[in-house]
Amino acid sequence: MAGKTNEFLIVSKSILPEAILKTAQVKELLVKGDAATINDAVERVGLSRSAFYKYKDGVFPFYEASREKIITISLILENEAGVLSHVLNFIASVKGNVLTINQGIPLQGVANVSISIETAGLADTPENLLAGLGEIVGVRKIEIIGQT
């Protein structure tokens, strides 16, 4: 369809059909060099070549789809000195570029913070960025609320 742009969704792996999950596995084997050819990769995961070719252009890992983009995350932080500072320091440590920060007034001991991060220079995947943020003491919840 001429003029139509690709639209993307973030979908949980748990609801995807097996052929799509296996297509992602094949692509990962090829990217990591664990399989030399498409034939080798599809045989390893138990997927037909035709299914792979049907889905290959529409299946991307989250980190690939969000590279060189801006993600906006919402965090619920405990209202304690230094928690936001630790969050920002962690983002900087993985080379994330913070574009905006919005923090609401703390209520009932927690504050809602939204941060927009440019992912082009990340030293790691956005998935690992989020996992690392979740390990910071005082971070109660993280959610992706936007992506461009």
UniProtKB/TrEMBL annotation:
It comes from Desulfosporosinus orientis (strain ATCC 19365 / DSM 765 / NCIMB 8382 / VKM B-1628 / Singapore I) (Desulfotomaculum orientis). Belongs to the UPF0735 family. It comes from the Bacteria. PROSITE patterns: ACT (PS51671). InterPro entries: ACT-like_dom_sf (IPR045865), ACT_dom (IPR002912), UPF0735_ACT_dom-cont (IPR008310). CDD domains: ACT_PheB-BS. This is UPF0735 ACT domain-containing protein Desor_1222. Residues 72-147 form the ACT domain. Signal peptide: none annotated.
